[in-house]
């Protein structure tokens, strides 16, 4: 199907602009709820850090700042390429759009690969709270409990983002979706939000307690 | 004719312009990331958590404003984003309003009258009769 023959809008929307506005608004409503979901975890982290500042600094030193920093650079770069995808979509530059979407998903997959290396390093250092946990203080278990939950849930979100981005790229490449599809912007918003969460987590988890 | 040539002829942005414009924002975000990482190894005293979180918030504002395009969004969408932030502020205010002002949990805060600055590690310095929720760790009878 060529762009000229595309369906103008899906029911129940009376027009394409209304459909776009609804898709963007719906995604922001979802992201606001996601902000509260991650916000509750971060609030828990903040409370325990206030209660046990010394233990949290010791625990934070055990995280692998190299992997964390590589991943931060990767995610910021992926937000850049995702924005290129959105603007290519608005300009109906189909090839640039597909390239930017695939590049974004590839960077996301690289993030997950680095994250797996980091998790392996953490497991080798016995940083999973449990019987053989490496650090003596009880509060350091709180830190690493929150670390595994927050970074794990974040990685799941990113994996979903990679799947959505690749599915969209495939749909556009196979002409099941038009290049200025109203699905591009909501998926991009989701991607940027996942990046936002990581930027906050990076400052909270990896940087404290360094010399 | 490829996409770029066709679109540029129609007066839209070229692919090169899209890369360059967003590349400048990417550079700014990466510079802030570098400052944040560097601050972890510099002795900036008690201000370091505020500095790092401040940099993170500036990065988020750039992301939301420019990459998530809130600056061009409708008021409905902006209202939705701001509402999420406001609920976060409520949650953090109420949570810390509790934890920073009560002393029942042995918190090492400047506001709790019996607090120690070293956190719960010095809970022994704390009047036990002021701990209505003090846990019992001994064997069950």
Whole-number average pLDDT of chain B? 76
Helix/strand order of chain A: HHHHHH
Strand content of chain B: under 5%
Computed over alpha carbons, the radius of gyration of chain B is 25 Å
User: Helix share of residues of chain B?
Assistant: 40-55%
Largest interface: A-B, 58 and 61 residues
Stretches of chain B where pLDDT is under 50 for at least 5 consecutive residues are 110-138
**Known CATH architecture of chain A:** Up-down Bundle
User: How would you name the CATH homologous superfamily of chain A?
Assistant: Cytochrome c oxidase, subunit III, four-helix bundle
CATH third-level topology of chain A: Four Helix Bundle (Hemerythrin (Met), subunit A)
Number of H- or I-type helical stretches of chain B: 4
Record field, number of beta strands of chain B: 0
Provide the helix percentage of chain A.
over 70%
Strand content of chain A: under 5%
**Morphology call of chain B:** flat
What oligomeric assembly is this protein in? heterodimer
The secondary-structure element order of chain B is HHHH
Short note summarizing the structure:
The complex is a heterodimer of chains A (211) and B (141). Chain A has 211 residues and is mainly α.
Please provide a written account of the structure:
The complex is a heterodimer of chains A (211) and B (141). Chain A is mainly α. Chain A has one domain: Cytochrome c oxidase, subunit III, four-helix bundle (Four Helix Bundle (Hemerythrin (Met), subunit A)). In chain A, 76% of the residues lie in helices and 0% in strands. Chain A has helices at residues 16-51, 53-61, 65-90, 94-124, 138-173, 184-205. In chain A, helix 2 (53-61) packs across helix 5 (138-173) and helix 5 (138-173) packs antiparallel against helix 6. The radius of gyration of chain A is 20 Å and the shape is elongated. Chain A starts with 15 loop residues before the first helix and ends in a 6-residue tail after the last helix. By secondary structure, chain B is an all-alpha fold. Chain B has two domains: 1-72; 74-120, no CATH class. Helix content of chain B is 55%, strand content 0%. Chain B has four helices and no strands. In chain B, helix 2 runs antiparallel to helix 3. The relative contact order of chain B is 0.05. Mean pLDDT of chain B is 76; it is low at 110-138. The interface between A and B is large, with 58 and 61 residues.
